[in-house]
Amino acid sequence: MYKKIVKNSPIAYCCADIINDNYGNHLGIKIKDINKSFEELFETKLEYINNKNIMNMLSDEQIKDWISTYKEVDINSKKTIRKYNKFMNIIYEMDIYNKEDKELYMVFRQVSKVSPAISPAMSKAPFPAWIKDIDGKYTDVNNAFLKSMGLKITDVIGKTEYDIMEKNQAEESNFYDKSVLKKDTLHTYRQAIIKDNKKEYYEITKWPCIDYTNGCTIGTMGISVEITKEVISIEELEKNQEILSQITNNIDEIIIIENDKTPVYISSAFEKMFGIRPEDMNLYDSCENWDKYWDDRIEYEKKYNEYDNEKEIGISKFKNEYGYKWLKKEYMPIRSNSDDVKKRVGIIRDITKDVEANESLEKLRMDFFANLSHELRTPINIILSSLQVINLRLDKLNQDDYEYFTKYLGILRQNGLRLLKLVNNLIDTTKVDSGHFDHSPQNGNIISFIEDVCMSVSEFIKNHNLNLIFDTDCEEKIIAFDKDNMERIMLNLLSNAIKFSKDKGNIEVSIYCEESIKIKVRDNGIGIPKDKLDGIFGRFEQVKSKMKNEREGSGIGLSLVKYLVEMHDGSISVDSELEVGSEFIINLPDKLCENNKNKVDRVNNVNLTNISNMNIEFSDIY
Questions:
Q1: Would you list the DSSP string of 9-36?
Q2: What is the largest CA-CA distance in the chain?
Q3: Could you give the CA distance from residue 209 to residue 181 in angstroms, rounded to a whole number?
């Protein structure tokens, strides 16, 4: 009769034999009997588990949990344990009776059906999230919660705050849980926690967990976001606000704090620098007033960003009632813990004296280089002229002396021309910096001009065991260009092509007449590394070659070429690949001189000046 009552009882029941080895080590339990309530609770049948060792049916984690549970049960005594079955999403209590360490009798009572589980997205969230039932017991938490608490899922499910938190923290959490349930509304509060002897701040949000099927509240849900950095920043800002105010009011730089680009604080230095108060200009009222004040007075402005720290920097030439000022503005964002820009702090400095000092220094530098270059060019020309005079009498020497002097006079001439090229480049760079470089464009046939320049150096190229190929898709194209400057451009590009070409290589000059005039100078030489292409037109930039004969140069030439091309309202670029070659591409606008549209310069392009320029430009080619 008793067995029949147990079989039909609404309480789940299980009987099992304890399996131990010869040394008394626990190996598991073998199920002998279960009732219908057990089958319904755990959704199984007796035939599936009868006489089977449950250890063979569990995962490693479940085996560890069972062994831990078994060790808590004393022989010939009863132990009540609360468990959470995550797979079935239920919490149940289990009474275990150990009879002489041979048999186990277990009674199961379902405590509650767990509240809805945390969503997959929330389970992977970087901040702690949880769900509690109506009694304040945890029914589900995400991984971030377990990590922040340093606990396992089995340590939390079915427990309250008092089981896993300090008392004062648990009381505070319980208070807000009751408030959420009572008012049936969302609630947010801030909590301070001491962790590893450091105070951390969290913003905690809780709201009701609703069973929408039955239309009732079945618990609470919540998330916790750490805001330590933000709180500390605000506390430090408030703590030092008075000190900051004293500092900013006694320095010459203007300190500005902006909220959404509208000033919320401007230091008193503004009035000292501009002779007017920000309040009198309504600068605090609107961004438009602020922008209008600057825009009407700025004659020059340059802005750039430092991307590592997102600092915004600007240099402006500012005009007011008292004259001109040069201002440097620096803005740095103030970020929240969520990386949002809350405010911006700006510093405005008057750098007028620095700019004027730099301009004076730059003028002295330019004058020095100009004077030095002119002083150097005179003795260089005398040396070269003397070499020409000596060459007139070389035929008076015998054969051995003639060859000897010819060799070394050639070296002197080559290096004299090379030095003259460097001096000319230095003079030209000072002209460029001062804006006094001569540029006198005339209307002419750019096709025949480029072809004549190429033909004038073809013999030189041939003597260096290279081939020159000239190609064009049109025979005549009249545009405005400066002959001397265009000759300088082409000679420099051809000089580079010769210097860096391989033996028996090809140098190709091509012209295409499309919307613009495209001139290409291509070689199949050593090429330029990709990381050097961006700076190839910079002053004193030179790509070092590792080839047998090192090519030398000042690195000024290509920067001048770029400047000369831009004086023609054109552009220059380069494509290159190591050990394949380089291609310089010039784009010139298809336009004529407005004052002389009908006048075309037909003068022969090749003369002694070209030959002299070629000798100077090619002087560093051996």
A1: -SSEEEEEEEEE-TT--EEEEEEEEE-H
A2: 146
A3: 9
The Cα 178–Cα 159 span in angstroms is 17
- Token pair 């309202």 is at which residue? 569
Instruction: Give how far Cα 297 sits from Cα of 173, 263, 318, 320, 350, Å.
Output: 58, 19, 6, 7, 15
As a whole number of angstroms, the distance between CA 39 and CA 41 comes to 6
The answer to whether 199 and 192 are in contact (CB under 8 A) is yes
CB 601 within 8 A of CB 483: yes
Q: Looking at this protein, which amino acid is placed at residue 609? A: T
The token duo for 123 is 């389970």
Higher-confidence position of 33 and 605: 33
80: helix, strand or coil: strand
Average pLDDT for 284-289: 74
Burial of 284 (0-12, 13-18, 19+ CB in 10 A): middle
Tell me the per-residue pLDDT of 34-83, one tens digit each, with 9 for 90 and over. 999 998 888 888 888 888 888 888 888 778 878 888 888 888 888 888 77
**Sheet of strand 103-113, all strands in order from the earlier edge strand to the far edge:** 26-34, 12-20, 103-113, 90-99, 78-85
Residue 97 dihedral angles phi and psi, to the nearest 5°: -115, 125
More confident residue, 177 or 364: 177
CA dist., res. 208 & res. 505, Å (int):
81
How far, in Å, CA of 484 to CA of 601, rounded?
13
How far apart (Å, rounded) are the C-alpha atoms in residues 318 and 508? Answer: 51
Strands 198-211 and 516-523 turn out to be unpaired
Is 450 within 8 Å of 511 (Cβ atoms)?
Answer: yes
Continuous H helices in 519-607 = 557-567
Arithmetic mean of pLDDT, 168-188: 90
Strand partners, 217: 210
Residue 494, classified by CB atoms within 10 Å of its CB into exposed (0-12), middle (13-18) or buried (19+), is: buried
Where do we find the tokens 């831009």?
566
Angle at 255 between CA 249 and CA 257, to 5 degrees: 120
Is beta strand 254-259 parallel, antiparallel or unpaired with respect to 216-226?
unpaired
- At 216, give phi and psi (nearest 5°): -140, 160
- DSSP characters for 158-194? T--HHHHS-HHHHHHHHHHHHHHHHHTS-EEEEEEEE
- Phi, psi values for residue 60, rounded to 5°: -60, -40
Residues 6+ apart with CB under 8 A from 543: 528, 529, 532, 536
Please determine, for residue 289, whether its predicted confidence score (pLDDT) is greater than 80: no
* Stated pTM of the model: 0.41
Burial 395-423, CB ≥16 within 10 A → b, else e:
eeeeeeeeeeeeeebeeebbebbbbbbbb
Contact between 431 and 592 (Cβ < 8 Å): no
Other CB atoms within 10 Å distance of the CB of residue 36: 14
Helix (H) or strand (E) holding 517: strand 516-523
How many other C-beta atoms are found inside a 10 Å radius of the C-beta of residue 316?
20
3-state SS, residue 185: coil
Tokens of residue 504, six digits:
């028996």
3-state helix, strand, coil in the chain (%, to 5): 40, 30, 30
pLDDT tens track for 110-125: 765 555 677 777 888 8
8 A C-beta contact, residue 424 and residue 377: yes
d(CA 81, CA 73): 10
216 Cβ contact partners less than 8 Å away, ≥ 6 residues apart: 210
Secondary structure class of 551 (helix, strand, coil): coil
Using DSSP's 3-state secondary structure scheme, residue 514 falls into coil
